[in-house]
Each structure stands twice: as C-alpha cells, then as structure tokens.
C-alpha cells in the first residue's frame, strides 16, 4: 500500500494550475526531497498533501492516513507572535492528537515536551513568550512541535530557512531518525548538496513534474536546466486545459 | 464613616446588592471574553456587535415596552444573526471579518435607533443606550447569572482550540476541524455577554466592561491565565467602585463603572509592569546575561 498516491493531480489558485498533472506515489517510509525554482509549485503541492488546498483536478490518496497523522511545517507560518503563550505551551500544542479538547498534560507529556525542546537546542527557553524569540529560534520551536506530533507523514516546507549551520546538522539528524523510524518525510528544499547527501528520493518540479525517482538518477544537470527554464508567471488569458502537455509550458 | 461610604449602601439597599451581584457576574464572564477579543485583535468587532444587538432589543421594546426579557431575546437574535452573517461572509469571501461587520453594524444601529424612536420617548432611548444597573429585578438578575454561567462553561470547552486558533490558525486547520466551530461559539459568547452587559450598562457601554479590563491586564502580565485573572479582578473592582461612586454622587451607574475602569486603565498605561510608560522611561541598569 502506498503511503501517498497522486492521481493526475492539478493544484492551483483561481483555476490557474501551479502544479500540473502530477501522477505517482510515495512509498511508506520514503525520504523525498521536492526541488525546483521559486514558483515551481513546491509549497502548493505540500499544501495539497496536508489538505489545506483542494486539488483543481485529480485526487490525492493518503493511503488511510487522517489529518492527525500528518505533521506540517509551512514555509511561512501565520503565527501571531504577540499572543501571550510560552514556548512550552506552544510546543505542547503538538500533543493535540493525544490530548484533544480536554486531555490534561501529565508528567509523561511534560517530559516529552521538554525533550522536544531540548532536541532543537532550546532548553532554557521553556518559559519565554514566543514573541521574544529570534527568527531561527522560532523555526526551531516549530520543528520541536513537529517532533512532538509523532506523525507518520511529515511534510516540511523549506524547514531550514534562517537556521544556522550547526542547528541544521542537528535537525538533519532528526530527519534521518524519522526516516529510520519508518515515517514518510517530504521536504521542499533549495540546497542541492543537502538533497544529494541526505535524501533518497527526489521530485523535480517546475509547475509540473520534470523528473521523479532516486536522487542520484534525478538530480542531473539536464533536469535542473529544464526546471530552470520554467516560466514563472500565470498566463491570464490561458484557455481551459485539455491535455497533459507540460513540456511545452516548461520550455 | 468609611464603612458607611463603602459598605453601607450594600447592606442598606437591596437594589445595590442586586447591582453588585450583577456586576460581579458580568465581570466573571465578560472579562475573559474581552481578553480573547483583544488578543485576537477583535476589540472593535466587539464594539460593532454591541451596536448590532440594538435593533433586536428595540423590537423587543416595541412589542412589550421596557421588558428586559423581551429585549434580551431580541438582542440575542439580532446579535447572532449579525455575528453569523458577518462570520460567514468573511469566511466565504476572504473579506476581513471586521470589514464585513462594519457594514452590518452600521445598518443595525440606524435601524435600532429608528425603531426605538418610533414608539418610545427620549428617556427610553437613553435607557436602551446606557442601561440602568440600579433597576435590576430578580428575574433580570437570574438571566444575567445564567448567561454568565453558560459563558464560563462554553469557554472551558472551546478554550484550547480557541487559543491555538488565535496563535496559529494554519496549524489548527491541519490537525483538526475544531477551529471553525470554536470561532463561531466564541462569537456567540460575545453576543451573549453583550446582551448581558446591555441590561446593566446599555448597548454603548456594555463592551466597555469587556475590553477595558482586558486592556488593563495586558499591562501587567505576559501570561494568558494571569491576564484573564487580572482582567476579571479589574472588572469586578471597577464594578464595585463604580456603584459606590454612582451612589455617593449623581453620576449614572453605567458611566461611573466605565469611568473607574478608565482610571485603572490610565494607571496601568503609566505604571504597568509590561510596557508601562514609566517602566520604559526608567528601565534600570541592563543585566549581566
Ligand atoms: N495564494 C496564492 N494565490 C495565487 N497564486 C499563488 C498563491 N500562492 C502561490 N501562488 C502561485 O503559485 C505558484 C507556485 O507557488 P509556490 O508557493 O507553490 O512556489 P514554490 O515552489 O513553493 O516557490 P518558493 O521556492 O519561492 O517557495 C507561483 O507562481 C505563485 O505565484
Ligand atoms: Mg515555497
């Protein structure tokens, strides 16, 4: 059973496709990098997977996963940083799946939260209001919450934005640990070196799939060149799409 | 002497005791709602809703005179209608909620004043606009207490999703569908508490006992739970002091309560621990680490 199955999926905004006719599947436990230039549709695809954007066409099967089994780290979170909530409580919301509306936070849960905060190197920040963190620290807090969500599908949209090199190493180790635990991980990334060294599978996007498969085979100069040539802007006078002809759009 | 001024009115007069009970019930339920309104940047939404309940209350008044039951029912219906309409319009069109509310409430206010003036006198209009907490009867007091209880119960149920929705709506949307219902339930609570405050303070000032204490609390704490406690205390203190002030002078009760709250607010702006002006001017020497 595939963890994720795309069936001729088109995702977009106001009828304009941002990801055009994508088909394929992600095996359970896969570690997939999604790459492509700005505007390629990486974030759009990830939004489609977590269910906050409905496909314009086609279907995405989650292979029996429910919204609670997915942890999502958006590219730019819409967080109200002025809200008076501490790092501890904020990270604790990752336990939502277990606690629901009323469940109390017991000793075991407290330990889990503290460990997640420690894992991203923020021990000592537990009682700080989230509004007082630096940009990179906030990103790490979000990572800690993902850690706590204990999800079988983890979707990361440029998770290492604004994070220093040492922390990236730590967080990458976390990603590898998730992979080792059999969780499916999808991450949108721009750092080719990182993709090559750490991700087993790669999807190259340019408003549609350019190539998809084992990283070593997919990450070729030719594929990247095709992706680079993509035209970023929507065509306002585009006609309704009749065929799956992506190559003409990418050229 | 001090006893006569501060406690005497309440031991001596039943209407003062009723007013005090009412104002404490209002503080307990309204202040937490106000804190959430403020944190969700919906303070003006609260104000707008306060106007929106007016036509409903006015229709109640038109049908049965100054009967608080009828006016409450009318206010609830009108408030819910506007809250839900505005919420639905905002959610389905992407228009900001406050913008869509502004339209609804201006219409409601005009309609409400028109309806009251068709039948009533100017005194009636004043009563509707500014309330009269000293004229509470048992029945009204029960309604106020009942609404406050309902508010606290519902707030307990929606507390967690409401907090998460306020901080990180996208996260709540990906893990649960509780966000929408929690938001609507919250709007409903806003309406219930406005109608509640409306008995005591009138349409125009009802929102004051919700928003001002929240504003005060913000200057004293960075923690949500503490903010709610401070807001409730500030509201109760304003209510009590306002009643005493109104009893000893000729200031009407509603405005007296809000004026006391305003004084507390000004003190907080000046001397508050979190971002108060004095604190900013004299921050003390910087720390070691
Ligand atoms: N909310 C939106 N409304 C309309 N168009 C959008 C919206 N969000 C994204 N787009 C468009 O969809 C296309 C794909 O955007 P997307 O955010 O998926 O790109 P991306 O691959 O994540 O790029 P980046 O590397 O810059 O994050 C872009 O052309 C963008 O302009
Ligand atoms: Mg993106």
Describe the protein in words.
The complex is a heterodimer of chains A (251) and B (289). Helix content of chain A is 34%, strand content 22%. Chain A has 251 residues and is α/β, with parallel strands linked by helices. The radius of gyration of chain A is 19 Å and the shape is globular. Chain A has helices spanning 42-50, 87-92, 96-99, 107-119, 135-149, 165-180, 192-198, 215-218, 221-228, 247-250, and strands at 4-13, 16-26, 31-35, 57-61, 70-73, 153-157, 184-188, 201-205, 209-214. In chain A, helix 4 packs across helix 5 (135-149). In chain A, strand 8 and strand 9 (209-214) form a beta hairpin. Chain B has 289 residues and is mainly α. Chain B has a domain at 14-207: ABC transporter involved in vitamin B12 uptake, BtuC. Chain B has helices at 2-6, 8-12, 14-39, 43-52, 54-64, 68-93, 97-119, 122-130, 138-167, 169-175, 179-206, 208-218, 224-248, 253-271, 277-281. The A-B interface holds A 50-52, 67-68, 70, 72, 74, 77-80, 83-86, 90, 93, 96-97, 99, 101-102, 129-130, 145, 149 and B 39, 157, 160-161, 163-164, 166-171, 173-176, 178, 221-224, 227. Adenosine-5'-triphosphate (ATP) binds at residues 13, 18, 36, 38-44, 75, 232 of chain A. Chain A: Keywords: ATP-binding, Ion transport, Nucleotide-binding, Transport, Zinc, Zinc transport.
> Main sheet of chain A?
6 strands, mixed
* Beta-strand residue percentage of chain A: 15-25%
Radius of gyration of chain A: 19 Å
Main sheet of chain B, how many strands, which sense, barrel? none
> How would you describe the oligomerization state of the chains in this entry?
heterodimer
Proportion of residues in extended strands of chain B? under 5%
Helical content of chain B, roughly? over 70%
- Please count the beta strands of chain A (DSSP E, at least 2 residues each): 9
Quote the average pLDDT of chain B.
Answer: 84
Helix- and strand-based class of chain A? alpha/beta
Q: Count the helices of chain B. How many?
A: 15
Give, in spatial order, the strands making up the sheet with the most strands of chain A.
5-6-7-3-8-9
CATH topology name of the domain at 14-207 in chain B, in short, is ABC transporter involved in vitamin B12 uptake, BtuC
């Amino acid at each position: 059973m595939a963890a994720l199955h795309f069936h001729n999926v088109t995702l977009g905004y106001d009828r304009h496709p941002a990801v055009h006719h994508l088909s394929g599947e992600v095996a359970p436990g896969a570690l997939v990098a999604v790459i492509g230039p700005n505007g390629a549709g990486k974030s759009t695809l990830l939004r489609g997977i977590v269910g906050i954007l409905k496909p314009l066409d086609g279907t995405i099967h989650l292979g029996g996963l429910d919204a609670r089994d997915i942890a999502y780290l958006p590219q730019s979170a819409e967080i109200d940083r002025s809200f008076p909530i501490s790092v501890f409580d904020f990270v604790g919301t990752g336990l939502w799946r277990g606690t629901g509306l009323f469940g109390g936070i017991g000793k075991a849960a407290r330990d889990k939260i503290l460990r997640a905060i420690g894992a991203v190197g923020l021990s000592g920040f537990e009682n700080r209001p989230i509004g007082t963190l630096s940009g990179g620290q906030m990103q790490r807090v979000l990572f800690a919450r993902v850690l706590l969500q204990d999800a079988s599908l983890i979707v990361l949209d440029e998770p290492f934005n604004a994070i220093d090199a040492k922390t990236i190493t730590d967080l990458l180790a976390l990603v590898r640990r998730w992979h080792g635990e059999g969780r499916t991980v999808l991450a949108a990334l721009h750092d080719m070196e990182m993709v090559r060294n750490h991700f087993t599978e790669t999807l190259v996007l340019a408003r549609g799939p350019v190539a998809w498969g084992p990283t070593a085979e997919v990450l070729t100069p030719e594929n990247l060149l095709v992706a680079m040539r993509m035209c970023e802007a929507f065509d306002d006078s585009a006609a309704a799409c009749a065929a799956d002809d992506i190559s003409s759009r990418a050229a | 002497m001090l006893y006569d001024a501060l406690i005497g009115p309440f031991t001596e007069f039943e209407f003062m005791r009723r007013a005090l009970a009412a104002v404490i019930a209002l503080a307990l339920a309204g202040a937490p709602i106000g804190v959430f309104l403020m944190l969700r940047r919906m303070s003006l939404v609260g104000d707008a809703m306060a106007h929106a309940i007016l036509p409903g209350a006015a229709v109640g008044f038109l049908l049965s005179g100054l009967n608080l039951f009828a006016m409450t029912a009318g206010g609830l219906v009108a408030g819910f209608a506007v809250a839900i309409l505005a919420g639905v319009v905002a959610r389905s069109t992407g228009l900001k909620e406050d913008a869509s509310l502004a339209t609804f409430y201006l219409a409601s206010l005009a309609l409400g004043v028109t309806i009251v003036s068709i039948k009533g006198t100017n005194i009636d209009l004043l009563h509707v606009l500014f309330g009269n907490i000293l004229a509470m009867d048992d029945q009204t007091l029960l309604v106020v207490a009942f609404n406050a209880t309902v508010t606290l119960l519902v707030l307990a149920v929606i507390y967690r999703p409401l907090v998460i929705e306020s901080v990180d709506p996208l996260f709540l949307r990906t893990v649960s569908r509780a966000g929408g219902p929690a938001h609507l339930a919250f709007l409903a609570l806003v309406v219930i508490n406005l109608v509640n405050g409306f008995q005591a303070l009138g349409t125009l000032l009802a929102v004051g006992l919700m928003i001002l204490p929240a504003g005060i609390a913000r200057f004293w704490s960075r923690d949500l739970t503490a903010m709610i406690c401070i807001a409730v205390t500030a509201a109760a203190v304003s209510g009590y002091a306002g009643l005493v002030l109104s009893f000893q002078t000729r200031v009407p009760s509603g405005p007296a309560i809000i004026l006391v709250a305003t004084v507390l607010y000004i003190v907080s702006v000046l001397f508050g621990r979190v971002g108060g002006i004095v604190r900013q001017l004299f921050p003390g020497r910087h720390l070691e680490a």
